Amino acid sequence: MGGRKITATSLKKKGPAHPNSRRAHQMARIALRQNKINASKDVRDKARNARVDRIMTFILLLPEEKSHLPDLYSLHDFVRTFYLPRYDDDLAELEKEQRPGRPPSRQLTELRDRISAEAREYNEGMEVPDLCNATNVELLRAWQGDPQALHLFRFPK
């Protein structure tokens, strides 16, 4: 299609439009495009925030006395020992509170889903910061959680 690009500001300069007019259809297309852009932005922001939360969790779970982990096997052991079972206490408490014969609560279902999703992600390949590099761990500990600085850190491949 050729011609001039139709934007919301160029259409708002004019008065109201008839519901079946060409201008009304143009305004509907503009609104639909804006909704798609906002939805994709929300998905992108949610993924970035989840990545930031995961990295912050790894740094908080790493003991202060350790400057780094010695090798990749210890990194896997760290993930299996500290990261994956971090919700086990909450899960046991919710399961204890559940009355027999009743369906599970929404919180219990969501927690089980989250635990299974993290276990599946670990088995398929989870993106974790390089905790085997002392410089990287030092940078991560000084990091305040800004998503713009994620490119400064190393991630094993």
UniProtKB/TrEMBL annotation:
InterPro entries assigned to the protein according to its UniProt record, in alphabetical order: Tma16, Tma16_sf
Stretches the record annotates as Disordered: 1-24
Gene3D superfamilies: Translation machinery-associated protein 16-like (1.20.1440.170)
A Pfam family it matches: Tma16
Any one GO CC term of the record: nucleus
Top-level taxonomic group: Eukaryota
Biased composition, class Basic residues, residue ranges: 11-24
PANTHER family according to UniProt: TRANSLATION MACHINERY-ASSOCIATED PROTEIN 16 (PTHR13349:SF2)
Family stated for the protein in its record: Belongs to the TMA16 family.
Protein name (Swiss-Prot/TrEMBL): Translation machinery-associated protein 16
Species the sequence originates in: Malassezia cuniculi
Gene from which the chain derives: TMA16
